[in-house]
Amino acid sequence: MRHSNKIIVDILIAILTLACLLAKVPALNAQGEGLKMIISPEMLTLPVGANFTVTVNVTNVQRLYTWQVVLKFNDSVVNCTGVWIPSDNIFKGKTYAEGEHLFDRDYVDKYAFLIYGASLIGENYVDAENSILFKANFTVKENGATRITFATKEAPARRDYLTKFYSFTLDYDLDEITSFTTNICTVVAEGSSVNLPPSALLTVIVPEVDTSKYVALKGYTPVGDIPHFFAYKGYPVIFNASASTDDGWITRYVWDFGDGNITETSMPIVVHVYNSTGRMLVTLTVFDNGDPPLNSTYRYIAVVGLLLERFDWSPLLYGLAAVFATAIVAQSFRKIRTKSSMSGRRA
Question: Which residue ranges form the domains of the chain, and what is each CATH number?
């Protein structure tokens, strides 16, 4: 009897332990879709001393309340002479305030960067398929070439080791609206020989999972400022480097998935399946068509967890309830029979 009781207790403990493991599947990351920040034009070839204007637009944005844009450029080649928000900007017709634009210098690559932003005032927000944020005037200073690029959370502008600035959009609750993709404006002084290094960028799409049937046992948590995504053992992940750019063209994409698998291809999109769990450092390296070929890298952390099919405990619980109910009924009948037998003997 004691042995049977121990088995029942062990079963109940096992049920409670497994129930504690049933956790909500983390939101799957489908980055790089929808919202875009666009700088135009994308390519300019001008003589030294020429002035030009770039326009920063945002597309596919919803519930926009506040924006900040950080642009980086080589100020030994071009100089920013002014920025302004035109009358037909995204907040047209609404009350808003613009911040004072600031210039600084990245302490690592020594490039200059511009910070500019604006915010609605009051209980308002805007939706836009394509609208202007601001414009900026530049002058070509010296022979050479430079890119005018967006600083993002993944690749911020850094005043020092602790202070970082990046572009973002916020909704009325001051939550970041979404991840976004960007492009690059390349400026070349006429007569300059140009072979700028490519710019590597990747986005990740993981499959949708039926959260009612699965429980996710996460691997290691992400660390540092490197962007991350959650993947699952045995499920394909789509890696897309189509947003990588160059002043010429990209000839090779080398993917190190962090699990010992390395793929080299001329195509920007690959599919990879993780067969082990844990924290993997994904590294994309792109090479351009220059002579010699130049390259750049982009890194992601893949947090790979194990998906276990969620067990339906209801039949087992119903079965246990039936067993207990049967035992109680049997015990009651046994007591009634015993009492009846004792009454008969007394008579």
Answer: 29-194 (2.60.40.680), 195-312 (2.60.40.10)
pTM reported for the whole predicted model:
0.63
Nearest residue to 91 via CA among 136, 125, 135, 58: 125
User: H or E element: which one contains 316?
Assistant: helix 314-346
Residue found under tokens 């502008």: 157
Nearest to 156 by CA among 97, 229, 68: 68
DSSP state of 30: B
Local confidence pLDDT in tens for the 347 residues of the chain? 555 554 544 444 444 444 443 333 344 433 335 789 999 999 999 999 999 999 999 999 999 999 999 999 999 999 999 999 999 999 999 999 999 899 999 988 889 999 999 999 988 899 999 999 999 999 999 998 999 999 988 788 999 878 899 999 999 889 988 778 888 899 999 988 778 888 888 888 888 877 677 777 767 777 776 778 888 888 999 999 988 888 788 999 999 999 999 999 999 999 999 999 999 999 999 999 888 899 999 988 999 888 776 655 555 565 666 666 666 656 666 666 665 665 555 55
Take residue 196 and report the two structure tokens written for it: 């700028």
Ranges of beta strands (E only) in 74-111 are 78-84, 96-98, 102-105
Only one residue has tokens 């276990």, namely 308
CA 172 to chain centre: 21
CB 229 within 8 A of CB 302: yes
What does the alpha-carbon distance between residue 14 and residue 31 come to, in Å, rounded to a whole number? 38
3-state secondary structure of 14: helix
Structure tokens at 195: 């072979």
Local structure of 22: helix, strand or coil = coil
Other Cβ atoms less than 10 A from the Cβ of 239: the count is 21
Using alpha carbons, select from 46, 45, 163, 171 the residue that is nearest to residue 115. Answer: 163
